Amino acid sequence: MTIRLNNSFERLGATAGRGFISAVAGRSFTCAVAAGGLIWLAAAWFGVQSAAAETPPVLVVPRSEAPLQIVSPPRQVERAEGEWELVELADRRLRVPAQWLPAGAKTHRLIAVVPPAGNGPGARRFMPQKSTKKAASNGSLRFVAVDDKSLRVDEGERPVLVYNHGEIVGSQVPEHDWRRARSCYVHPVWGLDGERLTDDFPSDHYHHHGIFWAWPHVEIDGRDYDLWTCSNIRQRFVRWIDRRAGPAAAELAVENGWFIEGKKAMVEIVRLRAFRASDDARAVDFEFVWTPVDRPIALRGAEEKGYGGFSMRFAVRRKWFTAIAVPGRVSGDDLVNVRLPWADLTYPFGGASSRSGAALFVDPAAPDYPPAWLTRHFGVLCVGWPGVEGKTFPPGEPIRLAYRVWIHKSALGSDRLQRAYQGYAESAKTRWE
Fold this sequence. Notes:
The chain is built from one helix and 36 strands.
């Protein structure tokens, strides 16, 4: 009996043929068995017995001095369920918890937090395989329903953040004030020691709310709407697209809408991915797709100040204790319309004796990179895009933006923050071979 094994695999959505692993790549091999005999060949990657096996893929990861939160390019995976791990080929003792998350109808992305490596030559190479032991439940991420309006992400027993899909009411805001209620945002966000980093309905700016994304000028058919304060246009939850959690990350995808008098003007897709924490930091990635429904929509930042877009309001009580770091320096002054790839805010949250904080990182592939920012020591970081001049987007054409919120312990120097940002940029180079 002759068994011939071949493999086909997906690279960024394309299928390419290549032979099963053997002493010579790309060749097939023959296994002869005695009459009446039977040999089952183990398909190691999926851990099943089969007469046809796939070549175990290799994930190539950039070498970094900081932990890398990686999201692989999509590939076709037949059996993505269960516990997974990445095994480094250069040192098979290193096994990193990993998980597959859907990327399309038949494809998945591999998610993991890869520990740092020294200054060795070239990239690092990992092979995914079914985990040899079940991940401890107290170390995995999970979703917990707070109520019918809010969904919390926990890592073990530690809270990470809450996504508010329902309408949240600020009782301290006067009833006649349209800033009294809002939805579709993230708050609270917790630091690694359990301190609450974000604020909601602060008395100085009722309309600030945790991590949020909004513009003060949304122009449709010559009329100006204010999503920043929700005065005449509002974000509302439409449906859940996906929610999955595991040992490497918790990811939710949701569809919201921008509504004017009950009519949807913009479709908003939000994908939020909270990674497992490393020793002193955690990454939370945000990916957005906005699509005007049936009319052109112009987005524009605030006059002179430029704010409008991805923003984070921190729970600062005394602004003179706030430190804001930007590339190359700690900024003692508030910044207005300054172009930056990232900015970081630290503060002794909750009266702690030491600082902690979070940085906002802008995807280097973003349009008009780097964007203009507004920073305020009273506790806000605002990424201003498309800025004061604004841009008009035709109906049906998607607008795509991505950011990372990098939560960390203690006050960090600009060099360390820059290395973390570089890790965010470098992680996009992860590839299959």
